[in-house]
Amino acid sequence: MFEEYYINEDTLVIIPIGKNKAKVYDLNGTYLIKKSVFEIVNISCQYYGSSYTGRYIGAKKLLSMDYKLPIIIDEVKETVIFPTSSPKLDSCCWICVNNIDNYEKVKKNSKIKFIDGSIIEFDISLNSLENQIMRATMLLMRLKRRKNNPKKLV
Questions:
Q1: Cα four-point dihedral sign 38, 63, 77, 25
Q2: What are phi and psi of 59, to 5 degrees?
Q3: Is the pLDDT score of 135 beyond 70?
Q4: Which residues are within 8 A (CB) of 3 and not within 5 positions of it... i.e. 6 or more apart?
């Protein structure tokens, strides 16, 4: 079990296991971390120079939304994650949109296939999952657009 993990471009998903433990699926392996999912998200935001609150406010501004927002973890590598439910819930997972290969409905849940071939089932409806993927993709698109065409002061 590890003490720290920073979300990066290889992160697939972070899943809660109890109140202060998380399982991280990464392109390089699976890790058990002695922190809550939200702590990992917040510490990762800080590692890249912000905080969860700062990333949330930025996403809110870019998307004109304020519920279950995706956030930018790393602006340079354009790493964007999204929650499967309200981030306030202990059951909330965070998924990296950059590493999703495909997804499908499984009864009332959804199954995601990641770019490394791993498949994980989530307690989220297909409609909710598609909505979250759309929001995360929109955030990523707006980040790229602003990076490529920054507004200049006149």
A1: positive
A2: -65, -40
A3: yes
A4: 33, 34, 35
User: Would you say 38 and 55 are in contact if contact means Cβ atoms under 8 Å apart?
Assistant: no
Q: State which amino acid sits at residue 55.
A: R
Question: With pLDDT > 90 as the criterion, what percentage of the chain qualifies?
Answer: 90
What are the tens digits of pLDDT across the range 5-36? 999 999 999 999 988 999 999 999 999 999 99
CA distance 45 to 53: 9
Amino acid present at 64 = S
Task: Output the pTM of the full model.
Answer: 0.94
pLDDT digits (tens, 9 = 90+) for 47-77: 999 999 999 999 999 999 989 999 999 999 9
| Nearest alpha carbon to residue 122 among 68, 90, 80, 85 | 85
Contacts of range 72-76, beta carbons closer than 8 Å, 24 or more positions apart? 72/139, 72/140, 72/143, 73/7, 73/8, 73/41, 73/44, 73/45, 73/48, 74/7, 74/8, 74/9, 74/48, 75/48, 75/143, 75/147
Considering the chain, what is the average pLDDT of its residues?
95
